[in-house]
Amino acid sequence: MTSHDTSALARVAARARAGAQGPGRAPSGAGRRGAVLNDDADGLQIAGLTSLSTCDWPGRLVATVFLQGCPWSCTYCHNPELIDPRTPGVVPWAQVRNLLSRRAGLLDGLVFSGGEPTRQPMLGAAMREVKEAGFGVGLHTSGAYPRRLAAVLGLVDWVGLDIKAPADLYEAITGVGRSAHAAFESLRLVLDAGVPVQVRTTVDPTVLDEDDVARLVRVLRHLGVHDHVRQEVRALGTTPEYQEALAAARA
Q1: Between vectors from CA 114 to CA 45 and to CA 8, what angle results, nearest 5°?
Q2: Segments in the chain below pLDDT 70
Q3: What is the DSSP-derived secondary structure letter of residue 138?
Q4: C-alpha dihedral over 63, 67, 71, 74, to 10 degrees?
Q5: Homologous superfamily of domain range 37-250
Q6: What is the DSSP string of 94-123?
């Protein structure tokens, strides 16, 4: 495991409260149209916190935060309560800070999951805190916001990226046009940055058949993906309508 500075989180938090940018200076990104970073990690909308996970970052012991809000409504989403961006967070970032300070030497890192973490402009500030405290930073993303992903990639040590389907079938899963463009652009950004990445595909049999999956595998291989995990869809937590469609597809 990595060594951690147990006082680093406290120093970073104190600096944030004091206004690390100095009096009279606007926060990073203020005044710029489309800014994607904000210096106040305390503003994160956190829907949940797992204090110990062995599966959210392969080979690492981590804590995981689940951030509120997602622009897509995927057919098989089993956390639909995380979609609405207007829902306030229920876990304060201070609680995450406290957990990490108590788990120094026990945890390898913190994974930011969702929802879609890159939706939130405070993500970069939170990642910087985690990095300065000596922990690794993992990110689960659907790639919905390529520009926002690019803004934080320099802070990320590992990415779990959902690639849901061949491009022509993406909208059938996400319900959103041009979602394939965003996802594959995000994949290109991660690969070009050289950040370790695991691409995950949850196979939705109401949309994809084996030929579709094979097409996707060929595309990913051509793009240079070496770690691709195929996941079986779960009915638990999905809508009644999807559960009915899934049962019919599996019949």
Answers
A1: 60
A2: 1-39
A3: E
A4: 50
A5: Aldolase class I (3.20.20.70)
A6: HHHHHHHHHTTTT--EEEEESS-GGG-TTH
